[in-house]
User: Fold this.
Amino acid sequence: MVIGIITYQFDLNQTEMGEIEPKFRIVARSHGMDYEGEQIEKLILKQEKFRLFYEHTAGYSSKTHNNKVSSTISGRLKNSSYKFLSHYQKTDNNLQFLTVALFEWNTEVEIVENLFQMFVSRLEIKFDNISLSELRNFQASTKIQNKILEEIKFCVFQMDRFNNLTKLQKAALIFATYEREFCLQLLRKAPISRNNLQEKLEHYKHNVNIDVLLKPFVELNLVRRDWVKGVKDKKTGIIRGQGEYIFLIKDIALIRTPPKEVIANLQRHSTIKENYLKELKKFYEHYSPFEKMDEESNIFAQLLLEPDTFDFLSLLRNRAYPLKKIPRVISQFSKMREILDRLITFNIIRLIPDRHGNEWVCMISEITPLIVFPEYLINNIADRTAIEPDAIDEKSLVAPITNEIGELALNLLELTYEEQIEF
Assistant:
C-alpha cells in the first residue's frame, strides 16, 4: 500500500541567466513494511519534485497567512504508476518544505487522506518553529531531523495497518468513499454491468479500478459477479445485455446497538450500573436505525478507519473505565481529549458519574454492521425484466433488463437467502 514518506527542505536558486535551479535536501524519510531498503528518493525524479512545487503554489488548494503558504494535493506521478499525497509548506521564515507520501498504483489514497492531513498538521507546527540558523547548525539540524523522522515513521506505521483491516473495518470501507456508496446505491436498484458501472463512476472520478472498488463487497460476500451471454436482437443483430454483471445478494449498513459486553460487565460495578442503564434506556427509546442511516454509516466509517479511534473503541467495547484511569491505547501523537469529545458528540460514548461523583467513560453505541436480505430487489428485477430485446438500454438505471439477467439475479437471491455473514 504505502511505499514510503519523504520530506524535503529546498531552495529555488536563480542562476545569472535567470533560470531556476531547485535544490532539494532530504530532511527525513521512512519506508512501508514491504519496501524496507527501497530508496524512495530515487522514485521521485527531480522534475517531478519541481512539478509538485508548481502545482502546490500555482493551484487553488493553497491557503495563505501572512508569508506562510501550505497546501495538500494528490494524484499520480507522471513518470511512473505510483500515486502520491503531497504537502507543501512555506513558513514565515521563508523556509520551504515538501512532504510526499508514495503509494502503489492500486491504493485507495482517499482512505488514508485524513491520516495524512493530521500528520502534516503536526509537521506544520514543527516547521514553523525552525529557523535557518538551526538548519545550518549540525546538532540542531540533527535534532530536528529526528523529530520529523519520528512523525514520519509513525504515519507510515498507521498507513501500513490498512493492509490488515478487520471485517468491521472492511464494512466501513463501503461507506468511507463516495464511489463505493454510489456503487451500493446502484446495486440496490438492480444488477448492473461492469461497463455501465465503470461509466457511471467515471463521472465522479477518473480511472476507477472496479476490482479494487468491489473488493470489500466481494470479501464480505455481499455481491456475486457473473458473465451474461446476452440476447441477440433479430432485427439488428446487436447482442444486448452481454458482459460481466454485478449482483447484490446482501445489503449492508452501519448502525448502533447497545454494547452487550459492557452491560454484562457493569453487573459487577453497581456504582454506575443504575446511571448507565438509565442513559442507555433514554437514548434507545428515541433511536431508529433507519433514520439518517446512510449519513450515520458514513460517520461511523470515518471513526472505524481512524487507527487511534478504532483502538480506543475496541478498548471500550468490553467495559467502562474511570475517566482518570483510562489505559493509554492511542499513540503519543493523538490527544485523548479530542477523541473523547468527538465520540461524545456522535453519541458513541457518555461520561457517567458514579455515587462519588467520579466520571466513567461508557460506550452506549457499539457500531455494528446490519446485514439484510435485499427483498426489495425481487420487485425491482421483476418490474425491469424485458420481453422485447430492443427495449433494453444497458446504460439506463430504469430501462428494462434481459430475462437472462433477471433470472440469474433471482436465482442468486434464492440460493444465498440463508447465508449468514459473521463479524
Remarks:
- The longest helix spans residues 138-160.
